[in-house]
Amino acid sequence: MRARPVILSVGVAAMLAAACTTTDPYSSTPRRNNTGTGAIAGALGGALLGYLTNTNSGEQGRKNALIGAGVGALAGAGIGQYMDRQQRALEQQLSGSGVGVRRDRDNLILVMPSDVTFATNQSNLDSRFLPVLDDVASVLRQYDRSMVDVIGHTDSSGGDAINQPLSERRASSVASYLIDRGVMRERLYVEGVSSRQPVADNGTPDGRARNRRVEILIRPFTG
Q1: Cα(148)–Cα(128) distance, rounded to whole angstroms?
Q2: Contact 61, 53 (CB under 8 A)
Q3: What is the CA radius of gyration of the chain?
């Protein structure tokens, strides 16, 4: 059973806004504070999990929320064409970033290795990676007729008692940052799955490194 969502309170949202901006001393205008954003996203920990909609905790609730927000559903041949354009935009933006873009039928999967996203055993986003997430958010805002699942994964070292909350915190950090950058929260589902979905052999260092990742699954919204 998927986790029930916990919606961010107004107080937490205000904390996010305050930590993510500073005042430029030369112009007295707000500007982005990437370090603060990463720290707050990590501090949220596992608070941002499940379906991030006030409608209900299920997939249909997410769809209802998108329909209510005026997001148009895709249909027919337009689904593949829309995802083709989104894929090309992501590949262009993420070229050389270390983030892979995979296609599975009409779904797109972004694979974010932990070594370019997080410090070892940490869930605060690496500040060097924030421009990459900015690019991801930019494409997601442009192609808003899609649903976004953010899933955290670990290797099998340390056991589930450590890995489950770590995977949740890392997924939450990525999702929080995307929301802060303007991606509609109702589009998101956030989950940590510990080491239960490996993509490589946990018996080798290379395999464990590949298993430590956050994946973003982007699916067309078909109503």
Answers
A1: 23
A2: yes
A3: 17
Specify the amino acid at residue 211. Answer: N
3-class SS of residue 51: strand
Alpha-helix runs per DSSP H in the chain: 10-19, 34-43, 59-68, 77-94, 114-117, 130-142, 160-180, 205-211
Alpha carbons 114 and 153: distance in angstroms, whole number: 9
Q: How far apart are CA 126 and CA 111, in angstroms?
A: 16
User: Could you tell me the pTM of the whole model?
Assistant: 0.79
The domain made up of 10-220 is a member of CATH 3.30.1330.60: yes
Q: What is the pLDDT of residue 53?
A: 84
Whole-number Å distance between alpha carbons of 23 and 32:
9
CA dist 107 and 165 (Å) reads 27
* pLDDT tens for each residue of 148-182: 999 999 999 989 999 999 999 999 999 999 999 99
Domain map (residue ranges) of the chain: 10-220
CA distance 118 to 129: 8
What is the rounded distance in angstroms from the CA atom of residue 59 to the CA atom of residue 166?
A: 24
Give CA–CA dist 219/200, Å, rounded: 24
CB 130 within 8 A of CB 35: no
DSSP-derived secondary structure letter, 222: -
Q: Are 80 and 106 in contact (CB under 8 A)?
A: yes
What pLDDT shows up at residue 55? 65
Q: Tell me, what's the pLDDT at 41?
A: 42
pLDDT at 36: 44
